[in-house]
Amino acid sequence: MKGLFFLLLFVQLLAASIAVYKQWIPNTNFENASNWDKDRIPCANDVVLFKSNQVISVFVQSTHSLTDMYLPLTGEFIMAPGGGFAASDGSWDPGCDTGSAVLFTDAEKYKWHDPALWHAAASLEDLDQGKYIFAMDEERVPCQYDDVIFQPETSFRVNIDSSERMIHLRSISIMGQKFTSDAALAEYMQSSSAKLQFHGNGTFQVTKARCPDRSGCECGNAGEHRQICAALLGDSGTGCPALVCKDPFQPVGHCCEICGATISLEYTPGFDIRQYQNRILHAFLSLPKYAGVQMAISKVRKPQTSRNSVPVIQIVLMDDKTGSQTGTNAEQLAEDIMRDIAEHGDSFGIVTGTVQVATGSNSSGQRGTIADGTIAGTVIGLLLGLLLLGIMLFLYRKGMIRLPSVHLAGPWNRKEDQDVVAGPSDKGFDNPIFDTPTNRAESHGACSREEALKEMASKDSGIYFVNPLYDETELIA
Closest Cα to residue 259, out of 324, 201, 173? Predict the structure, then answer.
């Protein structure tokens, strides 16, 4: 029974790790102070204003006493149990001494493709606890295998304009109702409430399918990259933050350059993205020194040429350091991961990894691969060495260069020297001018002393030097 419990727990954890939930953040609730131009909820002495041409759906959770209210021509109010409106009886309302006109703000500005308007989590529990996933901008917007949630008891209005026209999702939940089939969702989208909640040219398609590839699936938002960045930064695209690091880089799927580190992995069919993600989480990110580091891991298309791209696993690391220390923790973590890949990458199905770093220090910049960079450098060095040796051998055989002879003083040479010194006819030291052999038996027909002296005299124009320490008669004898 205990084994079955742990098996079920493992399956639940595995499912939670694979699932990604994206939750819409803004709402058009009456009780949301940010929906009013005065940044407060209207009180009894206020006059509530909705623009006449405003298209809006408003959820009302409680009862509100108001002096007056002007409603839009096209809209709806969704009343929760106990929600509603009442005319003010003029009684005193704490904090509402002076009444004023309070205007409901425009909700047309909220766009589906704005990454800032979504929360992402690995489970519904993580959503409730605020444990959100760090991701690149394209992946902060709902991807093709994500579950999308609009919170129950909330109203909203969202622009779903799409350059691709079709928005692929695993499922979508609206007002507590989950849609996992196109037929049921299409029927809902024809309702009056849906027309107030969604506007634009986009169309939803739900598949109820998970990513079928253990190495991961692409988000599917690459075709919406320009629209995503325009929604996040504005049409001018000048909203990126100022960076203090040297040579910042832009990860695939992100709208702005960043400081930190990125690792691109080439992999085999046996690579499991969730297994390797857990490896990094437990082996490195659980360490106290990396508490301020965020990691995003996903499969992306990395351009090779203007027309071709290849799928790679992209790991993006960013830290909370500032100033000259910006990105240094991310850099250290990237180095640790690359060392781990060099030792254990084969067991995870990793072929090679390439790292790129940008920090606030002067030592930042691009880094090569542990596998490819080292091997390539070694091969190039060996080829250059062999080429140089080949050239020298060619020139030597042609007689264009002469190689100096080298005497190797090995142990056998030293032994022969010792035997010669230790011979029986030790006569002190040999004068190098005479070069007299120490053993006549070893001379094998060498010239006599007189002949040697005569030869030296003939070579030196009849002049030679006699060492007074030796008596010539002794040498002859």
Answer: 324
